[in-house]
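Subject: complex prediction, re-run

Hi both,

The earlier run crashed halfway through, so I resubmitted it with identical inputs.
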Amino acid sequence: MLPLVYDELRLVAARYMSHERQGHTLQPTALVHEAFLQLQKQYAVDFTNRAQFVGVAARLMRRVLLHHAEKRGAEKRTPLSVDTALDGLQAQTAVPFSDLHEALERLAELDPEQAQIVELRCFGGLTIEETAAVMEVSPTTVKREWQVARLWLKRELE
Amino acid sequence: MTKAQWERVKVLAAAALEVTGVEREALVAAEGDATVREEVRSLLAAEDEAFLSMPETMPAVIGPYRIVRELGRGGMGAVYLGERTGGDFEQAVAIKLIKRGMDTEAILGRFREERRLQARLNHPNIVRLIDGGMTESGLPYFVMEFVQGTALDVYAAALPLKAKLELFLTVCDAVEFAHRNLILHRDLKAANVLVDGEGHPKLLDFGIAKALDTDTGFTQAGWRALTPEVASPEQVAGLPLTTASDVYSLGKLLGKLVGPVGDDLRLIGGKATREAAEERYPTAAELRLDLERYLAGEPVRARAGGVWYRTGKFVRRRAKSVAAAVVVGSMMLFLGVTAIREGRRAERRFKEVRQLANGLLFELHDAIAPLEGSTAARALVVGKAIRYLDQLASEAENDAELQRELAQSYLKLGQVQGSYFEANLGQVGDAHASFAKAVGLLEGVEKRQPLQLMVKAELAQALLRLATTENAANRGEEALRLCDRALGLLWMPHPRAVLARGMANFGRAEAYLRMGKAAEAKAAREEAIRIFDGEVARDPGNRDALRMLANANRRLATPEGVARALEADEKLAALAPNDGAAKLGVAADHSYLGALAMREKQFARAAGELKLALAVLRERCAVDAKDQRARESLIHNLTLAGRTEKALGHEAAAKELLAEAATLGR
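This time it finished cleanly. Structure:
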């Protein structure tokens, strides 16, 4: 199922990002939803493994951002929503996106679950509650992991 | 660092983040493992509020809707502005996300029930409930039409009184519409009425309060879907709700909207917010009518002290201490009597005190009524009331208004003393005396004010009451005379008058029966039925009409008649799903049909009817274990059913039913 989902997601992402919405930041979860609904419609399959789906979507978003981050400046056709998201992240982290991306890769080597939580929250746009539901752990756990991850990443990026 | 150490680091770091300063340092220092300690210290040094701070509380998506922003927050959760994702259309909606901590499955289950009824709520002043569901994280949500508006009290704050009232009238309309479609609001507060940009009020949250109500009986404590300021007494007590409960909330809303104002408006608000549901306006439409009268400068119903007072059952109230109540009652009586002596200067105060005293006397009685062994106390109260009223009556020679009010008090007193349909203290003779006094007073007023329609109506009502006692005493001719006179007074086309005409015919039928004139009785009864039928057809939600129709048909004592009564009782039960009495009526009809069938030796048919009766009663007893009457009725019908099964030769079934009756009877 995975390659199928991935391709579809890319298509949906492309279509979604071509709607340039003034003032709206990239809302990844909305994207996931749309993709989810599209897929359900097209393939008439009941996607019960939502967690996997969302995980893939978040990863996709991350890749999209990375792709545009690297090309920004050089390419004049970065969608507004991506620009906004990247700017937002930059303001918060005080580093270029690629640095964040790499730091996250390192975190994933140390603690894959924790990195997954970060990915879901940052690129999937999930709240703590939603992340907990998707990963099937308690919100308390998510909160803890999230807080520590932020510390770790900050330290890493200094 | 090992995996275990890293796990330990995470736990410690997270805990340390919850505290600050000395506490934090101490917590970290207490860690035995040096590696862990150092790692935690190092991490904590990187603490940064702003770094990667993702919005916590606002979800990006709920169901198929994208969340744009938060609109507000309430006790139950937050409300968001949402946009439908996918497709070409963009529909703005308001989504109420219920916070964690409530029984989601139960809420959603109830919500699905409500949804079927909600589909009928298509009204320009009611915000449409579009959808509902559960988010991935297991939180229930409701999707509503988005209305950009201001809360009613805020919007209307600077408006003149008339404009405020006009807004309120529209609100009454919307509530009435919902009631006609069998939906109660249950949480009518200012915040739930939004006024949009064009000045149209829109009611929010219909049915949501019901869906959220997790009341599972008398053991459920804590959170209930109600707002204390507008919640009716029965709501607070966890009793079943009716349209009158919404009327109570409307009354509170009215008070909030208009603030402290003059006499009549305050009386209207007061009537809507009476403790006893029976004493309020029975419907939002009635409240609306009285407000319209107020706006037109006409006399309002709230003043007359209940012209169309019906013989309902008194709402069971929390038991009050008898002693305290009697003391208070005496005080009020004393004040009342003293006021008379102060003469004209104290007249206004006297009126207020009198009204208070009248109300209190009967509230007193009602409060005492449910207490066991209170007959003596009640007789005491009644005795005081008689003396008090008689005293007032002797002073009231020229005061038509006072006389009318006294007449109402006498009528009420008479009901308390006992009437044909309700044996309270069982003293028909005393009731007769009271009713006769009322009639006497009103006849006098009517002669002096022959053009006053309301007076005629009040007199007709009093005559009908008196007629019931005449019938109870088997004085048919007298009863007939009274009913005919009443009919003569009830020529106006007002729906209440129409119902009263029906009642008058019903009275005539009873009178004819006692005179041994069966044919005339039948004709009169059929006329009554015809009138009630007409009212029900004209106004399907009119419970009085349905009740009277049921009574009238039942009195025919034929299977066809009782079947028609059953139909009416079923409608009544549907209109008031929480009303145990209505359900008892349905059960009683089935039981009656069963009894009629038994008389004709149609045992199988009887068994069938009794089964239906038992089903209703069993359900009722399950829902409300404290309903004594239902319990007794159940025992009675179980016994009947047992006998029927025996007659059919089904020994085992008979035994089972009789055993069940015996167990319950214990």
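Chain B touches chain A through 36 residues (CB under 8 Å).

- K.
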